[in-house]
Amino acid sequence: MLRRIGLTVLVAISALPPAAVSQEQMPVFGTTVVIPGGLRGQVYHLKRNTEALPSFEKLKSKVTVYTTSLNVPPQDFQIGFPGLTDRFEWFAIDYTGRFWIAKPGLYEFLLHSDDGARLYIDDQLIADNDGIHPPADRHASLRLAEGVHRIRVSYFQGPRTHVALVLKIAGPGEELRVFSTDEFKPPSNLEISDSLLPNR
User: Fold this and answer.
1) C-alpha separations of 9 from 12, 71, 195 in Å
2) What is the C-alpha separation between 195 and 200, in angstroms, rounded?
3) Which of the 8 DSSP states describes residue 39?
4) How confident is the chain (200 residues) per 10-residue block, as mean pLDDT?
5) Domain positions in the chain
6) 145 touches 133 (CB < 8 A)
7) Class of domain 9-196 (CATH, top level)
């Protein structure tokens, strides 16, 4: 039975050791098909023993993957990570995108990761969960105006044994839930341009 792990996905079979995955639980990975309005992830290979997020401008991206949400709860690294078919350790993904806020106010974010991750909103670092560590949370809050905002989530996986990356959000008076670009789309009659972005 194929297992879906919270992202828009297409199925890709990877070359795992026979003992790693059974016929009943085959890895399911993220899509390389462009998702308009979704998050775009640039995938990078890292040197063994990397202990923190790299300077991405010094690296060359290996592949680009797309998703609408980051919802990979802690799981065995041999299951794989959405979007990767040949890398289970020592990789990084730099996700970027835009989202629309209809209700201005104070927003809460929760970033959960194993290993390191950082969350940026409008180029401002608001949650730093970097480094090699077991699954851990970082909470942040930020007042957001109505309109379009930039989002960036940088993530890296070091050595085995688990992977995890979950981003949650809560607006004013709301409960935390998994962030999805599908929920934060602009009005259908509005065309987003760079001139609408803050801090430009």
Assistant:
1) 9, 12, 32
2) 8
3) E
4) 36 34 37 82 92 93 92 85 77 96 97 96 97 96 97 93 94 96 85 57
5) 9-196
6) no
7) mainly beta
